[in-house]
Write a structure and sequence with these properties.
Blueprint: H1 6-17, H2 21-46, H3 52-64
Helix pairs in contact: 2-3
């Protein structure tokens, strides 16, 4: 799904392209860390007494959705 107007998308890509590869990786990691922190805060707000194990399980489900379930064996990848 793409809901970003093409001109905004082009501007974002231009701004992102002004950074080195290492800076872009750092920025992507920081964005992921922020998104993860927001998800954890939301889960804890909905279930204040949640255990660490259940929190990790809920976070996993939000990140990976129904395609992968906790404990499911990984598909073998290319050799």
């Amino acid at each position: 799904m793409r809901d970003t107007p093409p001109d905004v998308d082009a501007r974002f890509l231009a701004l992102f392209g002004e950074h080195s590869g290492g800076e872009r990786i750092r920025m992507a990691c920081e964005m992921f860390d922020l998104a993860r922190a927001l998800m954890i805060a939301n889960i804890k707000a909905q279930e204040p007494g949640i255990s660490d194990v259940e929190l990790r399980s809920r976070l996993f489900s939000r990140l990976y959705g129904p395609e992968v379930t906790p404990g499911e064996p990984a598909e073998p990848g290319p050799p």
